[in-house]
Amino acid sequence: MLQIYGVPVSVHTRKVIVAALTKNLPYEIKEVVPVVPGSPPPDWRQLSPTGLIPAIRDGGVELADSSAICAYLERCHPGPSLYPASAAAYARALWFEQYAGGTLFREVVRPLFHEVFVQPRVRQQPTDAAHVDAVLTQALPEVFGYLEGAAGEDHLAGADCSIGDIAVASNLVTFQYIGFALDAARFPRLARWFARVLQQPALREALRREQPAVRAMGLNDDWLAGLPA
Ligand SMILES: N[C@@H](CCC(=O)N[C@@H](CS)C(=O)NCC(=O)O)C(=O)O
C-alpha cells in the first residue's frame, strides 16, 4: 500500500492525500512532523533529502516533494486525472501548483503558520506580531490579488478541477485553520472559486479525515461548518 510520510494538516501532504483519494488509492499515513524534534524516523533524510514533508514509499519507489509525488501518482494511475489534457491548460495547472508552493505558501501561509502556531504552540516562543502584520499588509494583498485576477467562474486551469486548484486550495484551507479568513468582500472571485473547489469530493474527504488532527491541534474549523453538505 502507498505510504505517505507527513501529517494530513500539512499543506503539501494534503495535496498528495487529495491526489490519492481522487484516484481511489488506499494509503497509509506515516506520521512525520519535521518541526517536532525526534519525530522524523532515522532514515528520514534518505527518504526526504530536504527534510520536508511529504515523502512516499510505494512498492520499491521512494520519493519526496508533493509535486513530484502527484506527477508520479498520475503516471501510475492516469484516471481520474488531475492534469488537463490540452498543453495550454496543463501548463496553467502546473503554473498554479508551482505558484501555490513557491509563493502563496512561502510568502503568506508558511510565515503565518510559523508565527501563530509553531512559535507559540510548538516552541513556546512569542508570536512576532510585526511579522504577522507585514505578511497581512504586504505579501497577502499582492498574492491574493493575483489569485483574485486569475480566478474566473471556472477552475484555475479550465473546466475541471486540476492539481493547480488543489495546490492553491490546500494553502487556503490551512490559512483558515490558523484563524485567518479569506475576505469575500475584498477577494470575491477567489472566495467563490474556493467555495467551488471545496465541493470537490476528494478534497472534502481529505478534510473529513483530517478533522481529528485539526481538533487535537486546536485549529479553527468553524468555517467548514458553513459549507453546503
Ligand atoms: N516543495 C515541497 C515543500 C514541502 C514543505 O514545505 N513542507 C512543509 C510542510 S507543508 C514542511 O515540511 N515544513 C517543515 C519545515 O519547514 O521544517 C513539496 O511540495 O513537498
The top level CATH class name of the largest domain: Mainly Alpha
Number of helices: 9
Number of distinct beta strands:
4
The backbone outline, from C-alpha atoms, is globular
Strand content: 5-15%
How many structural domains are formed by the residues? 2
**Main sheet overview:** 4 strands, mixed
Hetero groups bound? glutathione
Helical residue percent band: 55-70%
- What structural category characterises the helix and strand content? alpha+beta
Q: What's the Cα radius of gyration?
A: 17 Å
Intertermini distance: 30 Å
Mean pLDDT: 96
CATH architecture of the largest domain: Up-down Bundle
Name the poorly predicted regions.
Answer: none
Order of helices and strands: EHEHEEHHHHHHH
Strand order of the largest sheet: 2-1-3-4
Indicate the CATH topology of the largest domain.
Answer: Glutathione S-transferase Yfyf (Class Pi), Chain A, domain 2
Main attributes of the structure:
single chain; Glutaredoxin; Glutathione S-transferase Yfyf (Class Pi), Chain A, domain 2; 4-stranded mixed sheet; 9 helices; 4 strands; 8% strand; globular; binds glutathione
Short description:
By secondary structure, the protein is α+β, with helices and mostly antiparallel strands. Helix content is 57%, strand content 8%.
Descriptive notes:
Helices cover 57% and strands 8% of the residues. The chain is α+β, with helices and mostly antiparallel strands. It has two domains: 2-76, Glutaredoxin (3-Layer(aba) Sandwich); 87-225, Glutathione S-transferase Yfyf (Class Pi), Chain A, domain 2 (Up-down Bundle). Strands 2-1-3-4 form a four-stranded mixed sheet, covered by helices on one side.
